[in-house]
Amino acid sequence: MIPQIPAPNPRLAMVLMLSSTAFMAATTLMAKALGTDTLGDPLHPLQISHGRFIFAFLFYATAAVVVRLRVRRPALHLHLGRTLFGWGGVSCLFAAATFIPLGDATAISFLNPVFAMMLAIPLLGERVGPWRWAAAGVALIGALVLLRPTPDSFQPAALIALASALLFGMEIIFIKKLAGREGPFQILLINNGLGVVISSLAVIAFWQVPSMAQWAVMGSLGLCMAMAQACFINAVARAETSFVAPFSYATLVFASLYDWAVFTQIPDAISYLGAGIIISGAALLAWREALAAARAFP
Q1: What are the tens digits of pLDDT across the range 96-106?
Q2: CB 231 within 8 A of CB 96
Q3: Judging by beta carbons within 10 Å of its beta carbon (0-12, 13-18, 19+), is residue 12 exposed, middle or buried?
């Protein structure tokens, strides 16, 4: 059977994208709770990402059984590359969220399309014009602001968030190579399955027995990640990427609200300034990408 393409529905797409951002921000909140002494002895970031992949995979595996998914000719070398960089990116993001405000870690993670643009030049042979370079420059200035590069305010953990954005940027390169080859559901199922294997090997040296509360939160984290991915895929299937992409920046709003509600951490003026600059650069880059796509496929 050939799957039907969902009918265009911009309003539903907007709701789905906002739901995706709320779930995504919740994952960093739970990672912060697990990485601090909020729920008991802090868990290592590699153990947190391990739990994320296990429970997300269980969600997708159950769904695959229900819909009787048939896996068709997966490009395993591309899946492996995508999962390695995605696992590294999420592990770094969870580590950064433990030490710096969630808003800062989330804002820096928005640099991933900028890094993907830069990496696409040598790896995909893409050409980058002056507007895209300008957008990248603006976003990187915002990251520099959030790093607070002065002796009294420098945040070393922000470099971990920066590494996360770089790894996610590399993951985008592999996603681009996978695009059009396989269905989204198959890609997510294989990605999370490989993630379980990779994270299980990486966590051996850092494993500790979680408390019941930590198990529950890790399960919720994995479910939220799976829901975020599902909402995102359904959003882009029902509206043009140029329409739904700007709503992804709501992740920063939700992350800051969660951080304030749970950890009473309020963003300062530098956080607002840096986040605003990064979002401006990322939005400019998204606009140019949408314009280029429109010219290529009028």
Answers
A1: 999 999 989 99
A2: no
A3: middle
Planar angle of CA 51, 254, 227, nearest 5 degrees = 45
HEC-encoded secondary structure of the chain: CCCCCCCCCHHHHHHHHHHHHHHHHHHHHHHHHHHCCCCCCCCCHHHHHHHHHHHHHHHHHHHHHHHCCCCCCCCHHHHHHHHHHHHHHHHHHHHHHHHCCHHHHHHHHCCHHHHHHHHHHHHHCCCCCHHHHHHHHHHHHHHHHHHCCCCCCCCHHHHHHHHHHHHHHHHHHHHHHHCCCCCHHHHHHHHHHHHHHHHHHHHHHHCCCCCHHHHHHHHHHHHHHHHHHHHHHHHHHHCCHHHHHHHHHHHHHHHHHHHHHHHCCCCCHHHHHHHHHHHHHHHHHHHHHHHHHHHHCC
Residues 8-42 have pLDDT tens digits of: 788 888 899 899 999 999 999 999 999 999 999 99
d(CA 122, CA 139): 21
Name 206's Cβ contacts closer than 8 Å, sequence gap at least 6. Answer: 44, 46, 47
Ramachandran angles phi, psi of 26, nearest 5°: -65, -30
The owner of tokens 């399309």 is 113
Give the integer Cα–Cα distance in Å for 104 and 278. Answer: 11
pTM of the model: 0.87
Q: Which two tokens stand for residue 226?
A: 């799976």
Contact yes or no for 69/131 (Cβ under 8 A): no
Alpha-carbon torsion angle 273, 100, 33, 262, nearest 10: -40
